[in-house]
């Protein structure tokens, strides 16, 4: 069955196509009676606007691109929900692409989104991303770009972040406050900015409390699909290397849960022998035994804020006004649970 057109509605009501179009858009110069007749017939005929034609006319695609490292992930799932909740309100479709922590795949996705003429792009960069030309290409093409969580400081665009350094400092300070004397850190990779900042927050907390920083207590987890296994592996390695560690600040909850699983299997009691603080506040953190003390990272709010900022910039471009980039920092909170119980 062919889709119904504005012309068919106009012919049945013996009015112009322009009047039908205005009536459907609630223009004030169309009478209430005419609007009612047009809308009733449009509903009866199951009329659907030709979005392709509308987009050609307005030079908007009404789509945005979202590039994230992983989709099946508690934090990123919440970010996606936040973005979609706001995008739907404004009539935008969200194209979601997964980089799988690969720079090459991320670069390919950005190229694809630009070729699809999306109106803007939201991204959390992959762990392997060290060259930012593909991101600067977005800006050169005058497309709004908003980064969140894992960002590139060298790319001049809006960013929605948390204060990772401050949050890590808070987590480490909590371990110090409850009596931990020898604190290890399972960090993320060497490239991601949030991993760097969390490491620096951990280190600064030690220094500020007169505790020596020992690089042999820092273990790298590249994260991604093997986070749980890396947590287990680093837990085993830590016990092999040191026998006096009584606290660990861990870069993500999934790594922390992997470490806790291995410690328990090896007879190490939590929190009696080792106290642990994670990061993100995954749902699993509140149901494992013992429950995991962690930093709450507001994923849903971050997603909402990212889209709102992107929309603001897309609107500015549409209205031919200056696009203002900004950095928005959201609050985190320490959630105390059983893994650090004194």
Automatic annotation (TrEMBL):
All copies of domain HTH lacI-type, residue ranges: 4-58
GO molecular function terms listed in the Swiss-Prot or TrEMBL record: DNA-binding transcription factor activity; transcription cis-regulatory region binding
InterPro entries: HTH_LacI (IPR000843), Lambda_DNA-bd_dom_sf (IPR010982), Peripla_BP/Lac1_sug-bd_dom (IPR001761), Peripla_BP_I (IPR028082)
Keywords: DNA-binding, Transcription, Transcription regulation
Pfam families, per database record: LacI, Peripla_BP_1
UniProt name for this protein: Transcriptional regulator, LacI family
């Amino acid at each position: 069955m062919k889709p119904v057109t504005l012309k068919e509605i106009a012919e049945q009501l013996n009015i112009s196509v322009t009047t039908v179009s205005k009536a459907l858009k609630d223009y004030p110069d169309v009478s209430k009676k005419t609007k009612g007749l047009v809308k009733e017939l449009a509903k009866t005929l199951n009329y659907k606007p030709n979005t392709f034609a509308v987009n050609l006319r307005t030079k908007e695609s009404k789509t945005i691109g979202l590039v994230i490292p992983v989709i099946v992930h508690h934090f990123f799932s919440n970010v996606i929900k936040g973005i979609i909740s706001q995008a739907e309100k404004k009539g935008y479709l969200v194209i979601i692409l997964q980089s799988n922590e690969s720079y090459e795949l991320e670069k390919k996705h950005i190229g694809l989104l630009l070729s699809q003429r999306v109106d803007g792009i939201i991204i959390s960069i992959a762990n392997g991303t060290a060259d930012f030309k593909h991101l600067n290409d977005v800006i050169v093409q005058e497309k709004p770009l908003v980064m969140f969580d894992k960002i590139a400081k060298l790319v001049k665009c809006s960013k929605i972040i948390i204060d990772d350094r401050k949050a890590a400092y808070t987590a480490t300070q909590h371990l110090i406050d409850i009596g931990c004397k020898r604190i290890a850190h399972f960090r993320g990779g060497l490239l991601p900015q949030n991993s760097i900042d969390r490491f620096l927050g951990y280190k600064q907390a030690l220094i500020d409390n007169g505790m020596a920083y020992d690089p042999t207590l820092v273990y790298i987890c590249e994260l991604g699909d093997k986070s749980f296994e890396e947590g287990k592996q680093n837990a085993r390695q830590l016990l092999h290397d040191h026998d006096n560690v009584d606290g660990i600040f861990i870069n993500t909850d999934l790594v922390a849960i992997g470490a806790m699983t291995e410690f328990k299997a090896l007879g190490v009691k939590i929190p009696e022998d080792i106290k642990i603080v994670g990061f993100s506040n995954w749902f699993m953190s509140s149901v494992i035994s013992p429950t995991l003390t962690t930093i709450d990272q507001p994923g849903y709010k971050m997603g909402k804020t990212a889209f709102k900022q992107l929309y603001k910039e897309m609107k500015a471009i549409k209205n031919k006004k200056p696009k203002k980039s900004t950095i928005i920092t959201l609050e985190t909170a320490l959630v105390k649970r059983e893994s650090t119980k004194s």
